[in-house]
Design a protein that fits this description.
By secondary structure, the chain is mostly helical. The protein has helices at about 10-65, 75-100, 110-135. The protein is elongated, with a radius of gyration of 26 Å.
């Protein structure tokens, strides 16, 4: 593991911060609209829909941030994909468990819950787009360039260029 962060780390951290702010706003607005539409059942349905969507979208970002800690390790790629794939499998299993548990609950308004989940997902996608458009990341990243421009294997005939390995001067 290296102290140098992967170029995606600041982007993902910014996404988490803005997603948290948007989730809080959606929880207030969704709870209010849900309450106006369906009373307390709508309030709880909207809050649960926003919370579920935020949790599922956060799992992916957090799993990538955790996986980026192994950057520079020889096993970085397999560890990265194992962690991210594990997060997706976790989301898949939890999604079905939530659907089974919530199915037919008398305190849940399915329409308000659905609208809250869809609104949260669209808001999260908008946050992703805005953050990615505003972040300044070089086109080539996560690479170390040589610090000494005179180092390396040269074959040019510049004056003062290092001589060949045999020690013979260049002609």
């Amino acid at each position: 593991m290296t102290p140098n962060p992967v170029s995606s780390t600041p982007i993902l951290r910014t996404v988490l911060v803005w997603a948290g702010i948007v989730t809080a706003v959606l929880a207030v607005v969704g709870g209010l609209v849900g309450f106006l539409v369906a009373g307390t059942t709508g309030l709880w349905s909207a809050l649960l829909g926003v919370l579920v969507a935020a949790a599922f979208l956060g799992i992916t970002v957090i799993s990538i941030l955790i996986a980026n800690r192994w950057y520079g390790d020889p096993l970085y790629v397999p560890v990265f994909f194992a962690i991210v794939l594990g997060g997706w499998i976790l989301k898949f299993i939890v999604f079905f468990v939530i659907l089974i548990v919530l199915r037919g609950q008398p305190w849940l308004d399915p329409a308000v819950f659905f609208v809250a989940v869809v609104a949260s997902i669209l808001a999260s996608l908008a946050v992703d787009v805005v953050v990615l458009l505003r972040m300044r990341v070089p086109h080539v990243s996560d690479i170390a360039l040589p610090t000494d421009p005179d180092a390396g294997d040269r074959t040019d005939d510049r004056p003062g260029a290092p001589e060949a390995e045999s020690g013979a001067p260049r002609v």
